[in-house]
Amino acid sequence: MILKNRIRRTQEAMTQRELDLLLVVGRENLIYFTGLTQIECMAVLIPKEGEACAVTLWLDAAYVQQETGLITYGYLFPKETVASKVVQCIQKYGYDRPRIGFERYYVDFAMYDALRQAFDESNFYGAGDLFYKVRSIKDEQEISYIKEAAAIVCRGVDAAIKAVRPGVTELDLLAEAEYAMLKAGSTGSPFRPQVISGERTLLTHPCSSNKQINSGEIVIIHLGANYQGYCAKMCRTVALGKVPEEQVKVYQLLLEAQQRAIDALRPGVTAGSVDKAAREIIEAAGYQHHYLDYVGYGVGIRQSEFYPIIGKGRTEIIQAGMVVDLLLPTIYRPGIGGPRVTDVILVGDRSNEILTNYPRQLIQL
């Protein structure tokens, strides 16, 4: 029933876009429409009306149909490929000149070539934004998975914090965190996790390194966990020993901006208004030139879902059931580094719930 509801909502969105069919091949959307996380060599076709179907290797076809309830067609490799079988299935739907939407970043050349040989190329449309919008409202099952992932990532952050001391390396701390999360049930990080320290905290997407942690530095612990295909992430800042007063001031500023954004996050408002609530705090303190143009985005099967994007001037309407990550940016300024705090928030009808339930204050050791 859950999968059928997801397909029904998608078909409603397809009607608005005047699409006849959606081709699903990206792993994230396959998880969404099948509930299967161990997926290889597979596609799903969703018509604007009627039953969706799956295409997979013939050896897996019976299993996929049993687990998903989708009509499933198996292809015989190497005589057939997933692409050739997809073309056959599209033809079975009976459209003369079907308007086909697909995820432009996930369709490989073999699939695209098979489609353009069989159908009019002018009727191909990128539909990645449609998928993100449909996925932005989480059902109860999705929320339960994200909550579990959030509990797991809290364990990882806690393990890393307990291991912070002078002389250990960033990678030492990351190893403690990753081990704790795997033991708690995570199937791996949804992004490259980060434990960084000192001046390296100015970097936006760094790798953890063999740099030793020193007294008088801040340590950024930015981790993610995955449970049943769904993600949660969290970032905390540790001050080891006495750190510069401005670093403490900046962290308190970010914490205030985050709380303002959380308070502004409610059904019916625009994503831009949530960003503005946080941005006003940063601008009033004079740091606007060291700050990014967005403060958050959706979280779900991806750690960064691109609907909604909570940024300057964004017009997406916040709705109950969305799950977002706030507060993404830091204040990037040499000499200060980049103290950070971020949490996963569930938007409710009357109030929000911080799913990453871990103290948000600056952690001073």
UniProtKB/TrEMBL annotation:
Residues 6-137 form the Creatinase N-terminal domain. It comes from Desulforamulus putei DSM 12395. This is Xaa-Pro aminopeptidase. One of its GO terms (molecular function) is aminopeptidase activity. It comes from the Bacteria. The keyword Cell membrane does not apply. Gene3D superfamilies: Creatinase/methionine aminopeptidase superfamily, Creatinase/prolidase N-terminal domain. The keyword Nucleotide-binding does not apply. Transmembrane segments: none annotated.
